[in-house]
Design brief:
The protein has one domain. The protein has 1 helix and 2 strands. Helices cover about 20% and strands about 15% of the residues. The longest helix has 9 residues. It has a two-stranded parallel ribbon with strand order 1-2. The relative contact order is 0.32. α1 links the parallel β1 and β2. The protein is of the alpha+beta class.
C-alpha cells in the first residue's frame, strides 16, 4: 500500500501531515511513501530531509 504526502494548498496553513522522521518510520515498517515536492516547506522541512 502507498501513502502520499501532499503539499498543503490552504492559504496560511503551515502544518504538514508527516514529518521526515514519521516518513522514515513508515518506510522502515514496509510502507511505500510518496512525498510531493515542497510538501514540508511551510513547516521548514526541505525536500532532501524526506
Amino acid at each position: 500500500m502507498k501513502i502520499a504526502l501532499l503539499k498543503e494548498s490552504r492559504t496560511g496553513e503551515t502544518r504538514v501531515a508527516l514529518t521526515p522522521d514519521a516518513v522514515k518510520s513508515l518506510v522502515g515498517d514496509g510502507w511505500d511513501v510518496v512525498v510531493e515536492r515542497g510538501a514540508g516547506e511551510r513547516s521548514h522541512f526541505v525536500d532532501a530531509t524526506y
